[in-house]
């Protein structure tokens, strides 16, 4: 097991384009770190620099205590799992899992023991003699993970491993990967463009945009205290709404009415005239369904509801609003970059399933304005990020992680953690060629 430390990492491809631009990121020993961002933001490039499949233009990459910039992939002792599993069709499941051990000339009885342990862990025991073609997508994915695990590498690297699976299987595999990572306690870097995967899997999430790191934090921190417009819009589904607003004395005027500000927020926007206010769909409610106590701490907006979507457990309502053309254009750009096809001059509002608000009518909506964030429209910076709260969320995430790992150890005292099972020096020598063949 090992920490992975990236310092000012830059990757310029032949044309000089910086695919990864000055990334500094510290993945702790045993941590599950997610790299997330829209397609083309440099996630795979960064991962491939960790493994050694891509040269580093400048900066320093450390694995454990070793600078690995010039170390060959096969000497880094890392295991990579790709989107297209890169299984060998002519080999059985057993031999596919055993492959890296065979490469490393591991003795036969040791191969036998380790493949069996791995198969058991992944519930593949009864499929060991089958060929990949006869397996389901989820089983193939597990074989690919088995091949990564059996090597007892210092870290696991995943590049969008679930993106070829259907939605249901993706959900199941997500849970399995999460359980497995916690059980093995191996440092893991996991790349995805899917914010749901990012939020549900990781200890911490690193958000990339155009090669530049935007924010690193626990899922809860990213959701509650995004550092800028991009992170705020990328994390959460449906996306946060951004309303143009003018700053008045102690409150904001928005297309959905007046948002009161507490003293901290008012101070943060003092001297400004135009800002963007971010408010999540789930911070709205049908005003007829809320308690007086709640009503008192928010604002009521009368708004025209354009469309409603009833989903059984909740419903969404779409509320168009007017915005000045320059801000509207900026919001459209952001929306495009976030791969969202949502028109940004309409607010998406999540309502209780019991709400009887109809499409085409005016409705009274309650807005939990205390949850709003205020952004600089030019730089996108979140002007109202609460640093005290950020620090508290960080401490809470550390405690939760420590408790979870302790519970895991208690539950499975004899569990084959990689550290305990790593006998002999055969672990993981060289899968370089194999890793190369599977890259996308
Ligand atoms: N071999 C390459 N040569 C030139 N440009 C590349 C190469 N690989 C990736 N890029 C560019 O680098 C950027 C980041 O790509 P990538 O790391 O694959 O993004 P992601 O995995 O986030 O989708 C993209 O703009 C892509 O076009
Ligand atoms: Mg990629």
TrEMBL record:
The UniProt annotation puts the region (Disordered) at: 394-440
Record GO terms (molecular function): ATP binding
Is Plastid included in the keywords of this UniProt record? no
Tell me which residues make up the ABC transporter domain: 4-235
Alphabetized UniProt keyword annotations:
ATP-binding, Cell membrane, Membrane, Nucleotide-binding, Translocase, Transport
PANTHER family documented for this protein: MALTODEXTRIN IMPORT ATP-BINDING PROTEIN MSMX, TREHALOSE IMPORT ATP-BINDING PROTEIN SUGC
Task: Please state what the protein is called.
Answer: ABC transporter ATP-binding protein
This chain's source organism reads Actinomadura rugatobispora
